[in-house]
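Study this protein:
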Amino acid sequence: MTTVKHRLEYAALRATVGLINSMPLPLINGLTTGLSRLVWMAFPFRMPVAYDNISTVFPDMPHAQKLALLRKAYRQFITAAGLILVINRPQNTGLIKNAQISGLDCLDRALAQNKGVILTTYHGCWFEAYFAWFSQGNRPTSLIYQQQNNPLCDAFFVRQRQRYGSNLEHIHSLEKLHVYEEALRRNRILIVSLDQNYTDNGTPVRFFDKEFTCARGSALLHLRTGAPVLTSVYYLKDGRLHIDFEPVQLPSYPDITDEAIKDISNRAIQLYEKTIRAYPDQWFSLFHRLWKKTGYPFKIRRSFSDLIASDR
């Protein structure tokens, strides 16, 4: 059911998108660069959380280097957010169509087993470009996603992802397990994000050598269906979108147990670490409360030179 608040929020979203779409790309790039600098200097949202996460990934990194990395992360996030709203423009279609794909043969071999594929992934800044690649492809894919509170805005972003094609099916994250199993029975790729904290109903794993609680669903689906498990990561390198697929090597598990779920989840999530270390500024979950919900520092010390420094 839509409310007046939903309609007002949706109107504001469409007005913003319309304004951005009226601008040439160089202007959009300039505005996102300026906005990222403003955010970094005056409104650095969730900086204590991001700083703490960086310290977990790079425990020996000096303070100044962490700040430089965070400055780049704010810019990456805001730049990606701006371009995603105009990703359907002809100038941007090359980002999707010319993506460099690694491990596609592994994905196709897994699909050939006719059990579906459990494709785990992480939250990178360029997630909308990643989804668009699946939308325009010919491999049947289902995305488990968290529906927005505003149904009008939620439907808008679903339509945005389908500008490149309708191959990407959306499944709500609150659906029952049998809905995901049905997608696998139809031999679809099922995209599941692992790098989110599920303290209330998750399984403990080691992520960057620190205990982390991730979702149990991927492991449980494998144990119930026998569908192969792969990981996928995506990032920009030299201006080109890269998507890498990698199989998760799993032994045979005789029973569905907490230990089996933990082992599968560990094997999958630890494969993300090398990409996150290589492209930490493109890891959107950097701004999420991952390893803990509370206990972050109130403020991160920054000098005037830190505020005005350039990340170029």
